């Protein structure tokens, strides 16, 4: 079994391909794809072995690659996106695109070869909320959820039927208090829970999901900020927005580890990686200082390896997390500037 890790290095305009040794918890660089300026987010289609890269270029682009033998990336083309992409998620026969700066959510259909196509219309919702930051689909395929950071809301959609659009908006769920800024989200494998990390208040908040209606009910929360961190409530990073305080709460990522038993989060002002026991009464198990400004983090397919990238450090750290939340650093490597996103392929 082989595992490949793809790292989007935004400042370099490259995608690095690494072999991941799951036993040792180490990365080995195999190749670097250049000419991917502005690459900032990735999504992977495991069935077709295709990598999608969202690019923050003057005209937003989606670059598409096929993964061939040995993890090599074969460029299939660059395609225009309806708006900028802060987050991509693969959705069976389409790519979901969340736009922070354009406050929009789109569903871009792909053909049988996995390439964006025009035979089916692109769905776009530009009226649901401000600063859409992340999007995810439930495993049962019934619902799509997205975070609207500037509106303090979790957006919800069901699948369209008949002449309806591909996605039909459902009532949103407020994330309180105002100014929390829900940023990224994860959905439990059984679909019973949707959990967000809030950028400006530094909380992990979990919601119970009604599988029939898609409605969310707040179930529990925990802070990833301690008094010793000496942080104040953060602000949304938008043009013309409020001044950024000297030490703002600036949470970034949330991922699931250990088959969903753990959540891992990052906070950028303190450069901290935190491990949380998942559930309706979550609790912090451990935290360590990591890469400078850790915007990007991901959990490898093994479920126990965490990769963390630093916006300003130009490096990636690898950790093994135990069932009890103990973190063991297994490697640190230098990468291209601003390793902003990770994706994985496991080949049996």
From TrEMBL:
- Which InterPro entries does the annotation name? Cycloisomerase_2, Lactonase_7-beta_prop, N2O_reductase_N, WD40/YVTN_repeat-like_dom_sf
Which Gene Ontology terms cover its molecular function? 6-phosphogluconolactonase activity
Task: Quote any Pfam family the record assigns.
Answer: Lactonase
Entry GO CC: cytosol
The entry's family comment says: Belongs to the cycloisomerase 2 family.
Task: Spell out the protein name for this chain.
Answer: 6-phosphogluconolactonase
Organism whose genome encodes this protein? Galactobacter valiniphilus
